[in-house]
Design brief:
heterodimer; A: alpha+beta; BirA Bifunctional Protein, domain 2; Enolase-like, domain 1; eight-stranded mixed beta sheet; B: alpha+beta; OB fold (Dihydrolipoamide Acetyltransferase, E2P); six-stranded antiparallel beta sheet; 34% strand
Chain lengths: 345, 140
Amino acid sequence: MDLYRLGAVSWQDSQLIYHALPRLALEGLVLLRPASPYVCIGYHQDAMQDVDLDACRAAGIPVFRREVGGGAVYLDGNQLFYQLVLNRDHPLVQGSKEAIYRRLLAPVVAVCRDLGLDAAFKPVNDILVAGRKISGNGAGEIAGSVVLVGNLIVDFDYDAMVRVLRVPDEKFRDKVHKSLRENLTTLRRELPSVPPFEALEDRLVQRFAEALGPLELQPLPEAVQRGAERLLPERTSEGWLLRRGRQAQGRRVRISAGAEVIQRVHKAPGGLIRATYEVREGCLASVDLSGDLFFYPPEGLDALAAALAGIPCQEAEAAIAAFYARHGVESPGVTPADLAALLGG
Amino acid sequence: MKIGPYDFPDDLYYDREHNWARVDGETVTQGLTSFGQAIAGEILYAEQPRVGREVKQGEALMALESGKWVGRVRAMVSGRVVAANSRLDADSALINKDPYGAGWLVRITLANPEELKQLLRPSDPGFASFIAQERSKYGK
């Protein structure tokens, strides 16, 4: 299989090359990193809903919609990208999605372990080191090929990531920031010294060759470069970026396979109620409740939020009802079921 | 026909990508089979195919996103897209909940009835063994 080690490329090429390869029915493994930062959104996301486009524009950060699923990510040259394009009949891309991800990400897990990290694959598509994500991945079918794209995170600009997301309020932004720092790690955080990019690429090549068979280093074919150039005008157009996408109820930012930050609003007969919270491995964490409701005792809403930490989402209603009974809560027109409706995870 | 936990209504046509087709005169309604939705997992988004578009049998006409994966749905017959299921825009999980009913994907005019011969029927001798192989491949 062909191997393209492209080093630092323009941010556009860091996305367009793997979109061009399948359109030419070419297989290959591409290793690269973007020369400048940008935001990349999933195929079916709604850019205006998920990304703060004004903040991106003001900071000179472009936004790109990829043909692969998942959420908005901040990408820059401190992340080493691997992009694997395989014909959809290739034996490695048969079977369930989880099996395919597990198979294709095994080389990346092996590289992390080579570096001395306690790395493991976590379904559906994450690689965790000591419980924290160190590699983000997505896959999809493009023009008859299966494409896996992912990154090995050498360093990460947490502040930039939270600045580019559209968030309902600063409380939500703070929770995303905190959750990112707690659930996403980097080689820089995990290793006393990080090998240079070339050394990391060498390891990826070695490990991917074990899975894919011999890899032959090639210059990027001119046809692929031309293919990327052909895609450029449309894929960087406002029309493509602002395509209507998935309309979410409330706001949800996925941090890793086991962590999400969510805000939901619910109109109960007794008033509008809002919950901003984190879900970790199916359990509530860091819950904030607010709204224009009557709640007695007055400090009870904060106490209820604190009492919900660690409760499985599906047990929220029972926990809220128990809290109501224990503390003699009165909240006319807002029942434990109303509050639980916000906390479904 | 029922194969394991999966229904395959006898009056429908099927392809090897786990789509079904119902033929009503010159219109074909297409959707994902109960097995197809099971291997896809929770469908998070169903792209709406453009009404009026001409498609060829086997051509990708829309995308479904599920569990960090964007998959393509291919047209089971050639023809013109005459309807897309707009309910999926608000509730793509209908594909999981009611794959042969409210979760239908697209309606296409049937340009060439001969193409139906390339599709599978539950009564075909190889149908049950094909599904058995697929269940084994996907661990379902």
